[in-house]
Amino acid sequence: MDNELYEEEGVPSGLITGIHLNVSTQEDIENISVKQIDAVTEVTDPKLGLPNPSFQCSTCGAEKLKCCEGHFGDIKFPCTILHPYYLSEVTQILNKICPGCKSIRQNLRAKGAGSVIGHRKLKGCKYCIGSSINYPRMKFKVSTRELFKRSAIIAEANGILPADYWDFIPKDAQQDESCMKPNKRVLSHAQVHYLLKDVDTKFIEKIVPKTNSLSMGSFLVTPNCHRVTEVMHSFSNGQRLMFDERTRAYRKLVDFKGVANELGSRVLDCLKISKLNSEKPSKDFISAQQKNIKDDPSKTSGLRWIKDVVLGKRSDHCFRTVVVGDPNIKLSEIGIPCQIAERLQISENLNRWNIEKLDASCNLRLMVKGEMHVRRKGSLVWVRQTDELQMGDTIYRPLSDGDIVLINRPPSIHQHSLIALSVKILPITSVVSINPLCCSPFRGDFDGDCLHGYIPQSNDARVELRELVALDKQLINGQSGRNLLSLSQDSLTAAHLIMEDGTLLNLLEMQQLEMFCWDVLPSPAVIKAPSLNSHAWTGKQVFSMLLPSDFDYDFASDGVYIKNGELLSSEGSSWLRDTGGNLFQSLVNHFQGQVLDFLFAAQEVLCEWLSMRGLSVSLADLYLASDSGSRNNLMEEILCGLQEAEQACIFKQLLVDNCQDFLMGCAEENRSPLTFDAEYFCHEKQKSAALSQVVHDAFKHIFRDIQSLAHKYAGKDNSLLTMLKAGSKGNLQKLVQHSMCLGLQHSLIPLSFRIPNQLSCAAWNNQKACSLIQKVEGTYECVESYIPSAVVKSSFLTGLNPLECFVHSVTSRDSSFSGNADLPGTLTRKLMFLMRDLYTAYDGTVRNAYGNQLVQFSYDIDMDKSDSTSTSHAKSTTACDGIGGQPVGSLSACALSEAAYSALDQPVSLLETSPLLNLKNILECGSKKSSAKQTLSLFLSKKLGRRRHGFEYGALEVKNHLVGLTFSDIVSTVMIIFSSQSNSQKRFSPWVTHFHICKEIVRKRRLKVHSVVDSLYARCNSARPELKIVLRSLLITSKGCSAAQTCNGDDDTFCITVTMPENSKNSSEQLDIARDLVIPFLLGTVVKGFLEVKKVDILWNDHPRESKKIHGSSGELYLRVSMSGKTGRRRLWSMLMDNCLQIMDLIDWSRSHPDNVHDYCIAYGIDAGWKYFLNNLETAANDIGKDILPQHLILVADCLSATGEFVGLNAKGIAQQKGHTSVSSPFVQACFSSPGACFIKAAKGGVVDELHGSVEALAWGNTPPSGTGRQFDILYSKEGLNLSKPLNPYDLLGSQISSSRENAFETSKAWNNTLDKCDVTSIGLEKSESVFKSVIRKYLTINDIQKWTQTLKRILRKYDINESLTEGDKSILKMALHFHPHKVDKMGSGVQDIKVGQHPKHENARCFMLVRIDRTEEDFSYHKCVLGALEIVAPERAKSYRSKWMNHLPE
């Protein structure tokens, strides 16, 4: 096994600079193939590589799969066929040429002037210039999947065709009669080749660059290792080969006999079965390849194979295991079990600085194995003695204390999920340990989370880890710019408690804590405390002992003031949490090198004090109240609060527009709406999302008062509230649900049932019974879906009844979480694909690795660039400042990705706006379709604030002006009445149409009768020409109508009459025109507002915290106008402005804008659109609750608008942005979506991918072009500089210690000449003995020796006399022989074998026999080996062992 690990393969090395994608031609197939497949059994022939039935590759002779990459074969076809990938291009060519004379149709149309036409007519064929009736133009297309599975070409023509129409197609003996129909021909492959034979080659090359790829005469067979799997048989020791679908498809091609179309169908089946495509290919495979590439991961194919095989890199120098917490480990360390550390190897080059350390490791390795491998000048070398080592050798040793490892916790959604930690070997098993304060950057905890570790194998990698990725280099959060680490969990709770007023410590406690502090014990703050009866120290003094002496800090909101390292005052503990301006952020800015030490010391002190004080959680903490009486008072106040909340919800529900009719009905009945049963309002709110939203907001406002009761009734010593106040664990809402009541529970998604107001089984049964009765009586109201919600008055402490438990389960967040769980991952994938190759150049600009495209002129934050960027972000020193080559694009993508993952904690609900979906919509930049529904925001003028309720009246006025009102909305009845028109000078039809309109509706809508009539006349004048004949002569009047009074019985209506001119003497015909044409046309007339305006909502916009102080209000009203129409995108905004001319003064046009960023850019320009997008992006991040540095948001905005217009974060937008760089990158596109389609499209175009990006570099073994891998130039002056001859650095290091090495070897010669022949080596007598003994004492214990003794005894007794030992037992004996006092004499010329023999002096005594290289034998006793080990490890035990066994020991 070891030999396999160190086996060296002769793989040639080189630098891949690009890949050229092409469709293989016949010449390529012949060059690649090593065997022509003529039989079905040869599909898995041994010449195609391993695995195969012969267990050996016949081509290269390899016997192991890893030594043979496989070889290609080929299958010869009986006839030449069209390549299935080019069928669409072939049909395109055929449709552009004349099938008779092979002329290009574009040329025929271009030469259509004057005498040229006549000349062309003389030379043209009947298909070019013949009559379109006799010889109509035919159309070529690819066959359907039912016919040859889309692998053939069909020619079709319409009409009655002449007998010689299809004469241009030659006869084919293999063609079936079913393929020859009067108007359709299914062409064979030979017939298509004939049609293409005389076509201009240059014309074909415009569509197909490589014309020799159009045909296929043979098919490549992939190596066996791609198709055949070798598995062990489950019932025998033999081998069994498993074949995949592609192998079976190959067998169908071998020795094929049939028509060419059927052969093409089978070839297409082989092309479908690929690891780049799905296992079950779609039926429309070729058409799917030609369509636009989609970005939906569920629809893409082959991405898993690309990720696992092409992008994934296997490493033997890594580990994965569960992580646990250990507060005794420093923050920059990771505890690794000794068993795992022994198996992980790290490479190190031998030099004078590490010779002693590596000598000890090599001695131990040689003692156990007898030999080891080192790498010397690129080759593996066997070493059996340490004096064979040379300076510069690469030695592989186990992990030890102080080594650096890279730790990662997937998923890597932010830059701090990769941290380099120092190794600390621990005597534990199976799990690794980290300090609990390091959970924050890893976004993990200790409930079974796993960590991945990677061992760097080069000096460059180790230096990069220490200088760039170590924890002390990542103290600043790259997403928010604040500190990465702070106190948490128990230490934060202890900090909150120790700094409370009244916390005193006595001398013993202070002396205990002083062990962990930096500073000496200060003077006591209290000379004599009555409670302690002695002097005492405050908790603030304890905290001051941890701070640097010259540290100053103040946090005004909590009254925190620190001067010269002394905490003078503080209130609360928010300044210790992960918030802006906290204590640790100030420490990072002023004492960056001491922050980790401070945190570690603070954790030790606080946890020690908490363990002395004690903190436990019990049911008494959930009970909140101190006694039963207080508990009863608490529950009574909760019930009163819930009743008040219910009344407030009903009151708010009545104020909604939908309840206007209900209130008017109550007024008519002289009945108060509040007297209605609460069940009625509960039923109504569950039918409407608007009502549910109002009730939810009202209840949430009252429920805050109920939550405050927890602080009122809970005691000061309540552990749960203590942790809540400290900010270490939990939240108040969870505590209220457990101890007081669950409150309002509402479903996040629509359901098919509703919930009764009273949550009891009786109420549920009554609701069901009433529904059944209503269904029987026919009065049941059918509602498609409800938004169930109810108030659960019980708590988890008191218990839930069955219905309450059911309500809580169906309204939990899990009901809709799964629908959007993959959205953050999708956004992360898109952001990384778009931005991963953006880096900072050495000139300060931000560029794209593809084409060196300029994205930003400077990465520095320009606060004047956008008004939206928050000034609260102080510019912090990060790893990106002033350093070229930084992957700033990846950092920005990670910052937004982490915010997206954090938004999963806020589930998508019908009643609340989802921050996650809002972020997604902003990044996708909205729709660019002109016919799509668009929204526009109108902000009210500040002048309206001068009047009382001016904004409210102004919003209603704007809404009333814009909302479209049609004539049908105000008409109550329509009648056609016959009345004679004999007195009129102009002849009119006797059929008069009466439109009866309610005066109350007209008054509410603020309409005038003459304006309605004018609108009807305008509608008639704008009718289509064919309708104007009837509509232009209509007579529209408004007058009293006796029919209206007769129908309605009152004077509340007026009438508008419409009379038509008498164009026909047929009376019934005029009646039909009035009924079928005039009435529907006029009812669709817009009498007020605008037809394009579909909806106007009056909404509330919250002001940011900073602007609240300036404006003096929390927000403002604004209107969201929804418009749609077939007009252009520019027209909608212009149309809205034109429509608002009459109310221009009510609207603040400087702030009003289209909501779609594309429309915004069209209306105001790209710069204004950029600021608008950036403001929306920052608002979305704030809604999620994440602070993101402005430079990340600015870079995202610049990246999406680099083309001069915003592109959406989708497949189409990303393709547009990539295309703007004018660099082809099919490989990285294939890694994003649809790899099969991407590679086929690139191969057909003969694209060359120059591998510019980081993904390509990692996949093809190159250094990523970012960070330290970015290329740079070193410029120097040659004047006065003489370059010396290059030297080997390891020779240079070795020359500095040559004298010590020579002295050591001179001493070793005096030791014994025979020592050089044994496996134990020495660099000097004194040094060898000391190093050997120090290694033994470090790695060997008395328990190990006892187990070792039992093992040796068992080995001696399990073999027969003269039976040789196995390799495993032999290695144990070789290790034991190192402790024998006469080991050199015993080994002699060298050990060849070890066996069990009969002792020559002691009868019936067994012993081990050494068989030397010179064939001589020597006996030795394992007891003397054990005695030698005891004298080194435990000399006091050696004496007793000697007295027990010395008299019986053989030599």
Task: Outline the structure in words.
With 1451 residues, the chain is α+β, with helices and mostly antiparallel strands. It has nine domains: 21-81 and 219-310, no CATH class; 85-211, no CATH class; 312-473, Barwin-like endoglucanases (Beta Barrel); 489-620, Orthogonal Bundle (Enzyme I, Chain A, domain 2), CATH 1.10.274.100; 635-713 and 731-804, no CATH class; 832-866 and 880-931 and 1165-1267, no CATH class; 934-962 and 1092-1146; 965-1088, Gyrase A, domain 2; and more. 40% of the residues lie in helices and 16% in strands. It has 59 helices and 45 strands. A six-stranded mixed sheet has the order 12-18-17-20-11-19. Strands 4-5-7-6 form a four-stranded antiparallel sheet. Strands 13-16-14-15 form a four-stranded antiparallel sheet. A hairpin with a 2-residue loop joins strand 14 (372-376) and strand 15. Helix 9 (245-253) runs antiparallel to helix 10 (260-272) and helix 23 (628-654) packs antiparallel against helix 26. The longest helix has 27 residues, at 628-654. 33% of the residues are buried. Residues 1-9, 108-122, 279-299, 862-882 and 1292-1328 have low confidence and may be disordered.
